[in-house]
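Q: I'm writing a short explainer about Choline/carnitine acyltransferase domain-containing protein for a general audience and would like to include a description of its predicted shape. Could you first generate the structure from this sequence?
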Amino acid sequence: PTLDKYIGRIKRQQTDDKDCLKWDIEKGLPHLPVPSLDATLTKYLRCLEPIQSRDEFDRTKTLVDQFRSSDTNVGQHLQDMLTEHAAKSENYVSKS
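A: Of course. Here's the predicted structure. Afterward I'll give you a sentence or two in plain language.
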């Protein structure tokens, strides 16, 4: 029993030390930049093209173009909301 307690205490101490170091390091990291709307949509299309049929991809591209369009302004509105959220949080990807 004494050896088990000793090993358990060392394991807890190592875990506590690692958690402490992790948080110390993360505090010094810069914030991730929010990619531009065009960069995000271009990457989205590039990822879908190889896995969609030609018709599906054409439809997806049409929807992306509508989303990106200044006529609807939906894409830019959501991008602005994301940028605002990123400015107020440590990690814009996670909910905080």
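A: For your explainer, you could say: The chain has two domains: 1-30, 33-96.
Q: Perfect, that's easy to follow.
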